[in-house]
Amino acid sequence: MAGQGTPATALLVRQKVAHSVHEYPHDPRAGSYGAEAANALGIDPTRCFKTLVAQVDGTLAVAVVPVSGALDLKALAAALGGKRAVMADPGLAERTTGYVRGGISPLAQRKRLPTVLDASAVAHPTVFVSAGRRGLEVELAPADLIRLTDATVAPIATD
């Protein structure tokens, strides 16, 4: 699997976390990166999570929600003890995390941000998140994802 190294996969190897890397051909015309990943890998979209960057009361934060749903901004703000959340500017999200949109991993971001993982993740033995570039997903146990991102677990997704 040469050429797949990203900060996210390097972190998993360094921390000796059990994981699997799944590569698929990314279509630049895909409307939804997360739905594309779930479809290409043939996995249930409730197990495939997208990483979104938002601002809660002006502070950047990460929300990790199933690709089958959407982020509930009010719930995200509440989970972080804030009043109001809005989606972050995509350019700011890329600069802060060190990843490109559609390939933002919750793992090994350039700047560690407060992270909230949707509560539905813990119902699965493993979940899929971006491995740090478009066309690359990593599968790992939700407990490892929570530990490595120091995530708060809360119901932040809507159907």
Number of helices: 5
Question: What does the main sheet amount to?
Answer: 5 strands, mixed
Mean pLDDT: 95
Rounded radius of gyration (Å): 14 Å
Give the strand order, joined by hyphens, for the main sheet.
5-2-3-6-9
Structural class category: alpha+beta
- Termini separation comes to 35 Å
Q: What helical percentage do the residues reach?
A: 25-40%
Keywords for this entry:
three-stranded antiparallel β-sheet; 30% strand; 159 residues; alpha+beta
Short structural description:
25% of the residues lie in helices and 30% in strands. With 159 residues, it is α+β, with helices and mostly antiparallel strands. The longest helix is centred in the N-terminal third of the chain and has 9 residues, at 33-41.
Explain what this protein looks like in three dimensions.
The chain is globular. The N and C termini lie far apart (35 Å). Helices cover 25% and strands 30% of the residues. It is of the alpha+beta class. It contains 5 helices and 10 strands; from the N terminus they run αβαβββαβαβββαββ. The strands form 3 sheets. A 5-stranded mixed beta sheet has the order 5-2-3-6-9. It has a 3-stranded antiparallel beta sheet with strand order 1-8-7. It has a two-stranded antiparallel sheet with strand order 4-10.
Give the arrangement of secondary structure elements.
Layout: H1 7-14, E1 19-23, H2 33-41, E2 49-56, E3 59-66, E4 70-71, H3 73-79, E5 85-87, H4 90-97, E6 115-118, E7 127-133, E8 136-140, H5 142-149, E9 152-154, E10 157-158
Parallel strand pairs: 3-6, 6-9
Antiparallel strand pairs: 1-8, 2-3, 2-5, 4-10, 7-8
